[in-house]
C-alpha cells in the first residue's frame, strides 16, 4: 500500500485530499497542529472523519518543530509528501506576520529537510494564486514574472517556491508547487467569504462587499481541485518540459502548476448563488478594497490540462455554492 504524508490534514484542503487518497487505497499519515487561527473544533471534526479509516494515522504536531518532519518521514517513508500546512489568509498576515514566518518559511524548510533525508518519489507543496500579486495581465500563466506580491502571506508563499527550487536542484528532489485559486466547498474555512456570507445571510446580518463588489475570482470547487492534486501525484517533474506551457525549471526537477477553474466569476454572481441556495436576500455593506487584496484572479489552466491529459472537472459556482450551503446548514443549523 502506498503511503502519503499530508501536512495540514485537519485543514480544509488537507481533509478533502486525505479523504480522496484513502478512497484511492493510500495509507495516509496526516499531520496538523490544530492551530487556533480558526475554530480548532472544526479541524478536530475533519480529522475524526478521516480517522474512521484504519489507513489514516493522525499526528498532532507542528511542521516548524526542528527535526519533527525528518523523524516522521524516517518512520513512515512516504512515497509522496503533500505539504499543505500553512498559515493562510491575506488579512491576518497584516496583524500577525510572525505566524507566517514560522508556519510558512520555517515549516516549509523543515519539510524540505525531511525530504532531503528521506526522499519521496514526489514532493508536492501548496503555493497560492496570490503569488501573482500586482500582475494585471490575465489569465495568469505559471511562466509569468511574479515579483510584486501584495501581501506578506503571498510573499511567504512565493518564498517557499524559491526554497523548494533550491532543494530540488541541490538534492534532485522532484517537486511540484501548486498555485491554488480560491478554493471553496463543504467543510470550508470560516475565515473565507463563502462561509462568512452564508452565516451572515442566514442570520439576516449585512455582508461586507469589498471594492464595492467590483471583484472577480477564479473559484475552484474543492473536489475538482483534489481530483487534480491526486492525479498529479503520479506526474513528478522529469527531465523535459511536457509542452510549451510548462514552467519546468531549466536546472531542477521543479515545476509550478496553477490549479484553478479557468473562469473568473463576478462577486455579484457569487452572492446571488448564495442567496439562491439559502433562499434569503443578502444585505450588502459596500466597502473599499482591503489592503493586500487584488481585484481579480484568473488561472490559465493549459499546463494543468497538458499534465493531466484532459481538462479538470469544472463544477459551476451555483452547484458548488449549493453543496456548501447544504453542508453548512447540516453542520451549524440543523432543523
Ligand atoms: N483555500 C484556498 O482558497 C487556498 C488558496 C491558495 C492557497 N491555499 C493554500 O493551500 C493550503 C491549504 O489551505 P486550506 O484552505 O486548507 O487552509 P486551512 O487553514 O484550512 O489548512 C491549513 C492547516 O494547516 C494547519 N497548520 C497551520 N500551521 C501549522 C503548523 N505550523 N504545523 C502544522 N499544521 C499547521 C492548520 O491547523 C490547518 O488545519 C495552504 O498552504 C494555503 O496557503 C489555499
Task: Describe this entry's structure for a reader.
The protein has a 7-stranded parallel beta sheet, sandwiched between helices. The chain has a two-stranded parallel ribbon with strand order 7-10. The model has no long low-confidence stretch (mean pLDDT 96). It is an alpha/beta fold and 335 residues long. It is built from 11 helices and 13 strands. β2 (27-32), α2 and β3 (56-60) form a beta-alpha-beta unit. It has helices spanning 12-23, 40-50, 68-76, 92-95, 97-117, 152-171, 193-203, 222-232, 267-278, 302-308, 317-332, and strands spanning 3-7, 27-32, 56-60, 80-83, 122-128, 175-180, 183-184, 206-209, 216-217, 220-221, 254-259, 265-266, 283-286. It has a single domain, classed as Rossmann fold (3-Layer(aba) Sandwich), CATH 3.40.50. α7 (193-203) crosses α9. The longest helix is centred in the N-terminal third of the chain and has 21 residues, at 97-117. The radius of gyration is 19 Å and the shape is globular. Residues 8, 10-14, 31-35, 43, 62-64, 84-88, 103, 107, 126, 128, 180, 182-183, 189 line the site of nicotinamide-adenine-dinucleotide.
Amino acid at each position: 500500500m502506498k503511503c502519503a504524508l499530508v501536512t495540514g490534514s485537519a485543514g480544509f484542503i488537507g481533509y478533502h485530499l486525505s479523504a480522496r487518497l484513502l478512497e484511492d487505497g493510500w495509507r495516509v499519515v496526516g499531520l496538523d497542529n490544530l492551530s487556533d487561527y480558526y475554530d480548532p473544533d472544526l479541524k478536530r471534526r475533519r480529522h475524526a472523519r478521516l480517522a474512521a479509516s484504519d489507513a489514516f494515522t493522525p499526528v498532532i504536531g507542528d511542521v516548524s518543530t526542528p527535526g519533527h518532519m525528518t523523524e516522521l518521514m524516517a518512520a513512515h517513508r512516504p512515497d509522496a509528501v503533500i505539504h499543505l500546512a500553512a498559515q493562510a489568509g491575506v488579512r491576518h498576515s497584516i496583524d500577525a506576520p510572525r505566524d507566517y514566518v514560522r508556519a510558512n518559511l520555517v515549516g516549509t524548510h523543515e519539510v524540505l529537510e525531511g525530504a532531503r533525508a528521506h526522499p519521496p518519489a514526489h514532493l508536492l507543496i501548496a503555493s497560492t494564486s496570490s503569488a501573482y500579486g500586482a500582475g494585471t495581465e490575465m489569465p495568469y500563466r505559471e511562466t509569468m514574472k511574479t515579483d510584486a506580491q501584495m501581501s506578506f502571506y503571498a510573499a511567504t508563499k512565493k518564498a517557499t517556491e524559491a526554497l523548494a527550487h533550491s532543494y530540488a536542484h541541490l538534492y534532485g528532489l522532484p517537486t511540484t508547487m501548486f498555485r491554488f485559486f480560491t478554493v471553496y466547498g463543504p467543510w470550508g474555512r470560516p475565515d473565507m467569504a463563502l462561509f462568512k456570507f452564508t452565516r451572515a445571510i442566514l442570520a439576516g446580518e449585512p455582508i461586507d462587499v469589498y471594492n464595492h463588489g467590483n471583484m472577480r475570482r477564479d473559484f475552484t470547487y474543492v473536489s475538482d481541485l483534489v481530483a487534480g492534486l491526486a492525479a498529479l501525484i503520479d506526474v513528478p517533474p522529469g527531465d523535459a518540459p511536457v509542452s510549451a506551457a510548462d514552467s519546468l525549471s531549466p536546472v531542477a526537477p521543479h515545476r509550478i502548476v496553477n490549479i484553478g477553474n479557468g473562469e473568473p466569476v463576478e462577486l455579484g454572481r457569487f452572492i446571488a448563488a448564495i442567496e439562491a441556495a439559502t433562499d434569503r436576500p443578502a444585505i450588502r455593506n459596500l466597502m473599499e478594497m482591503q489592503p493586500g487584496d487584488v481585484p481579480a484572479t484568473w488561472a490559465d489552466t493549459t499546463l494543468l490540462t497538458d499534465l493531466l491529459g484532459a481538462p479538470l472537472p469544472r463544477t459551476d459556482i451555483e452547484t458548488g455554492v449549493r453543496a456548501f450551503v447544504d453542508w453548512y446548514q447540516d453542520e451549524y443549523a440543523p432543523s
